[in-house]
Amino acid sequence: MIGVLALQGDFEAHLDALGRAGVAAREVRDAEEVLASTGLVIPGGESTTFRRLMEGTGIEEAIRAVAGRGDPVLGTCAGAILLARDVEGPRAASLGLLPMTVVRNAYGRQLDSAVVRLTDLARGVLGGESLEAVFIRAPRIASVDPSVEILARRDGDPVLVRQGNVTAATFHPELTEDRRVVDVFLSGRAST
Ligand code: GLN
Questions:
Q1: pLDDT, tens only, 53-70
Q2: Which of these, 170, 152, 161, 159, lies nearest to 188 by C-alpha position?
Q3: Which CATH class name applies to 2-187?
């Protein structure tokens, strides 16, 4: 049973998308429910609000435990910000589960919300067909450690990355019909 963190943001769209893909999922709202999940989605929304709502609840520790035991974790947009080791724009604390630096709201006003066909893909993982990606006030992945796989890029910047069982997308795969990102998320395996 995949848990979708339902504190804030577009968790309902993730539940619908997982449902369409035939994956059993439910909303999770506290540490116990997070720990009871066999995988976790951290949706888009507002990363500062997420952090505030998680404070003192044990949810952060529960997410670390889920990732640490090797279950798949997917963060999209604000969720990707929460997974990053370093957050800038402004500098902020995060879970530090993916060794990468993200800059919040880094694209110019014209570019920060857009529907883009991504063609720069890791074809061994995603196949050859372009991937439709919806960006909404997206963060920019400014750098990743060499241990992080870059699965898709937009204008050279990584937008879909994975390290073992932890996957992050700066776009919103739950808003399109393509299920390849769900497949990447669910096939993620612990790297250690
Ligand atoms: N701009 C938001 C943030 O910084 C992320 C936007 C999103 O999740 N769609 O948290």
A1: 999 999 999 999 999 999
A2: 161
A3: alpha beta
Give me the residue spans of the domains in the chain: 2-187
**Quick count: other Cβ atoms within 10 Å of Cβ 1?**
12
Q: Of 130, 125, 113, 134, whose CA–CA distance to 167 is shortest?
A: 125
Residues having CB closer than 6 A to ligand 1 are 44-47, 77-78, 81, 104-105, 136-137, 139
Name the residue of 48, 50, 81, 88 whose CB sits within 8 Å of the most ligand 1 atoms, as the mutation to test its pocket.
81
- Give the pLDDT score at 155: 93
Which letter, b or e, does each residue of 37-55 get, where b requires 16 or more Cβ atoms within 10 Å of its Cβ?
bebbbbbbbbbeebbebbe
